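Run log, item B.
One chain of 335 residues. Sequence copied directly from the ordering sheet:
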Amino acid sequence: MKSKKVVFAAPWKVEVQDEEFDAKNLPAETAALKRIYSLISAGTELACLSGGESWFKLPGVHGYTAISEVTAVGSDVKKFSVGDKVYHFGKHCLYSIASQNDIVIKIPDGIEEKYVPFTRMATIAMTALRTSEIELGDYAAVTGLGLVGNFAMQLARLQGANVIAIDPSKRRRELASACGARHTIDPLSENSKERVLAMTDTNGVNTFIEASGVPKVFIDNIGLVGKQGEAILLGSPRGDCIANVTDLLNMSHLWGNGCVTIKGAHEWRYPVANDQFVKHSIERNSRIVMDLIASKKLMVEPLHTHTVTPDTAAKAYEGLRNEKDTYIGVVIDWR
């Protein structure tokens, strides 16, 4: 049957290409999936579209979060049936094959289908919360208020933190306020440290989550953390940065400098599937996030800025690259 895919053909060049898809003779443990919606992950996908990520070779098909309908199943598949609608780690293509051992989860009742792909971004953000020691009444600062940063801010609030959202974009600060941030700071026009110390009775924040992936942002803001607090790298650091490493190390080492614990929160630190010996997994986090979205405890609607078709995806990538205040949550509609 005919399928189509969004291809990163060359650096900053996006094409839609047709392909043949054969759903016959499926391996016993797999299923054929027909895409309904997929979501563009701006940070990772733009890095790959630039040609600067060694692990992603151009030309290639990207994308890693989608909702699809199951159109065929292999003989050993028990977790889902033909006609089920499922959340999965899907690329930007109309048809694909997935194993029942992958993350393929039937969507819960009450969740809007167009919001299901946002689950992946919120699950990535949840890694920072699982890594953190946030408790009721703590102060948490989040830098970088794209999808992942906004979801990290919302989840920190749900965990009981008073959240301070920091970003130079007025639009993203407004979205953070709409999604529950207690305070927002413009680091270009305000002294972030002075503002944070005033908000926290000079104590600093208990937890700092860096979601932009810009190393300098982490270095510039680790000083917001109070004694025995924690600084969490949620966004994967990219790009060169020159800094005094000794100062950074002494933030962690010296009591006078705070004894700050630096933690990494990459999504893959947890196992993919549920495991009886490990409490947290990507599968469990995904189910929790979908329930939070379905119950509207986790807000998605303000972050969903665009719905595009595969044929207009190239324009969406241009927007995500050059109009960051306008293009934030971009869904591709495959119907």
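Observations after the first pass:
- The chain has a mean pLDDT of 95.
- Residues 118-131 form the longest helix (14 residues).
Flagged for discussion on Thursday.
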